[in-house]
Amino acid sequence: MNLKWRLSLANTLAVLVPVGLTVLVALAYLFLYGQLSGLGGLWSDYQKMAEVHSVVLSSEKSILEATPGAVEKAAFQQRLRDDLAGIQGEVVIIKNGKLLFSSRSFSKIAIAKFLEEGKASSAAGPVEAGGTDYVVREVDLRFKDGSQGYVLLLAPVTRSLPALGEFLFLLGASFVLSFLAMNFWVSVRFSRSILSPLSNLRQAAAEISRGNLDCQIAEEGDEEIRALCRDLERMRIKLKDSVHIQMQYEDNRKMLISSISHDLQTPVTSIKGYVEGILDGVANTPEKERKYLQTIHVKAEQIDQMIEDLLLYAKLDLHQVPFNFEKTDAEDYLRDCIEENEAELARRQIEITLRTDLPQRRELLLDRERMKRVLVNILDNACKYMNKTPGKITLILRETPAGTIVEVRDNGAGIPAQDLPRIFDRFFRSDLVGLRKNGSGLGLAIAKQIVEGHGGRIWAVSGEGVGTSIMISLPKGAGGADRAVLAPKGSEVRGGSGGSG
């Protein structure tokens, strides 16, 4: 339920329920009183009292509206007597302190009491006279001759009137007790629907502040409280994910430092060794000294390449490398890559071919330089783990319902099954016996970042001792429009083989 409506309903019930219970108690009291007393009940008594009050007021009005001399006339006095007779009331007229008229014979003491009660500022109670209790209503008037006088209207008091105080006390007590009980019930209900969820939220916030991000926040309570619970739960999950990512970054940083230290140690040690050999005179001939310097140069280039790969990967990981996409014919682009690398691959006795299975020409949106880096890294990796002579690398271009596939297939040593899921992790190198090569361990990790920057996906299929296929899938949404120029299905472009590591 909505909290606003719950509060409105609670406030309404806190008033209406006590009022309703008080009315029921009043009705029950009136019914029981009438049944037990046999007097027709308090309700009839109060009706009679109201009737008496009405008659007295009517008589008082008649007196006040009459002329000064009318009160002294027997006809007016008889009319007052007749009006009060219906309620068994009496009338007494006093002029200059003397009794002028009385509808019933009263003693002087009774009349004095009537006057005293009539002049009192507040009613002290009924006056007993002749075995009847009367309530006195005094009307001051001035007679025709200018003398002062009074008209005393006497109304009998019913036997049920003494129970009025008890009845009013009962009604007041009923209302107060029901009001307190209703408010207690509302408080208990609110403690379940509002206070209990808020207490749980407070406990969850305390756990989060202590670093415990595994305490789930359940949705409970009213609509607004549940919305608050949902928002806090999303905040907890995001905070937990943020902490988890931060821990991953910290672990990656430690691994990065460890891997850099290990990978740089080997070429730096070699450089130091060759420099010491030159300084110690071990390279005592120009040819030997030149060989040492060439080795130092190769090792320095290796360190430079490792640093360059590291910086590129860091920028790609932080999405700080801009991509310059151009519409590119996929087949022509791969053919150009083969031509650039075939000489180096031929020197390593590796043959490279291109096979296209596309039904027609296709243009893709590529960052030509970045995608060339992907292919170079894949070719370099294939060369490092090539254990056959001659080696063979085939670039296969085909189409699927999801997009365009570029496959780089080799017949090298293959990748062990346990290593296959990790080859795109940074600094990972498979430990094939006799084939572990130097490198930064970032080549395929960089390739993955670049392919994903194109909106594509990269994965590997390999059989140990058979060879490896690296698959690059570029979605149609990221590619260009088809061209109407058809290419022969299954056509190949052969070269001497090439690729740089």
Architecture overview:
The chain has ten helices and 14 strands. The protein is rod-shaped, with a radius of gyration of 55 Å. Helix 7 runs parallel beside helix 10 (443-453). The chain is an alpha+beta fold. The protein has four domains: 1-39 and 160-209; 68-158, Beta-Lactamase (2-Layer Sandwich), CATH 3.30.450; 224-317, Orthogonal Bundle (Helix Hairpins), CATH 1.10.287.130; 326-495, Heat Shock Protein 90 (2-Layer Sandwich), CATH 3.30.565. It has a six-stranded mixed sheet. The chain has a five-stranded antiparallel sheet with strand order 2-1-5-4-3. Strands 6-8-13 form a three-stranded antiparallel sheet.
Keywords:
501 residues; alpha+beta; Beta-Lactamase; Helix Hairpins; six-stranded mixed β-sheet; five-stranded antiparallel β-sheet; 10 helices; 53% helix; disordered C terminus
CATH topology of the largest domain: Heat Shock Protein 90
Enumerate the strands of the largest sheet in spatial order, edge to edge or round the barrel: 11-12-10-9-7-14
**Which CATH-level-2 architecture of the largest domain?**
2-Layer Sandwich
Distance between the termini: 67 Å
Shape: rod-shaped
Largest sheet: 6 strands, mixed
User: Could you give the count of β-strands?
Assistant: 14
Q: Supply the helix-strand structural class.
A: alpha+beta
H/E element order: HHHEEHEEEHHHEHEEHEEHEEEE
Topology:
Elements: H1 3-37, H2 41-65, H3 74-85, E1 90-95, E2 98-102, H4 108-119, E3 127-129, E4 132-142, E5 148-156, H5 164-209, H6 223-279, H7 286-317, E6 326-329, H8 330-347, E7 350-356, E8 362-366, H9 368-384, E9 391-399, E10 403-410, H10 443-453, E11 457-463, E12 467-475, E13 479-482, E14 491-495
Parallel strand pairs: 7-9
Antiparallel strand pairs: 1-2, 1-5, 3-4, 4-5, 6-8, 7-14, 8-13, 9-10, 10-12, 11-12
Helix pairs in contact: 1-5, 6-7, 7-10, 8-9, 9-10
